[in-house]
Amino acid sequence: MAMIEISREIIQKASTGDMISFEELYTLTSSYVYSVALRITTQRENAEEVTQDVFLKLYDNLKYFKFQSSFKTWLYRITVNTALTKVKKYANDMARRSDFDTAMRDRGYEEESTQRLVYDDNKILVKKMLKALNPDQRSCVVLRDIEGFSYDEIAKILHINVNTVRTRLKRGRDLLVRTFRKGVMCHEM
Fold it and tell me: With contact defined as beta carbons under 8 Å apart, do 169 and 141 qualify?
């Protein structure tokens, strides 16, 4: 899901406490923030909490945004950092939850078409594979391979060196390949 461009005027009005503009900002960006948070946390409830936290931070800190970077990059930095904090704080709890339980809770599985079942299976597989990564690797993989950010943009969002981005991506992708192969081998036996 792509974030809609936000006009400078809306951002400036919202930064002065104009609630109508802030609500408009929320409406235009909340789905995108949630999407990123969900990919990093892999849990719907955690993504919802992260989204709430991001908008509380945004409300408190929007006055400090000086248009030196794009609003999208700035918002993503807040979202990713908030999501990583959430993941690290609840890592033990998240490790115990199974993807199957999450999938069952998120949807009441009724009669669905084969295409929908394949889509859901793929979604669960992607979640499982992303869970195999540590939060730092996961954030780099999500931002690069799912969201399409450049290495430089990822480095700015995460406040890390570009070479660190490359290293995390390489290690994360290598682990994803091993995890996928392991999963394929288990299913073939």
Answer: yes
The end-to-end CA distance of the chain, in Å, is: 37
Query: Which tokens is 62 given?
Result: 């929007």
- For residue range 112-121, list pLDDT tens digits in order: 555 555 555 5
H or E segment and range at residue 121: helix 114-131
Cβ contacts of residue 103 below 8 Å, gap of 6+? 120, 124
**How many alpha carbons fall within 13 Å on the CB side of residue 13?**
13
Show me where the domains of the chain are located.
1-97
- What's the predicted TM-score (pTM) here? 0.57
Fold for 1-97, please state it: Rna Polymerase Sigma Factor; Chain: A (1.10.1740)
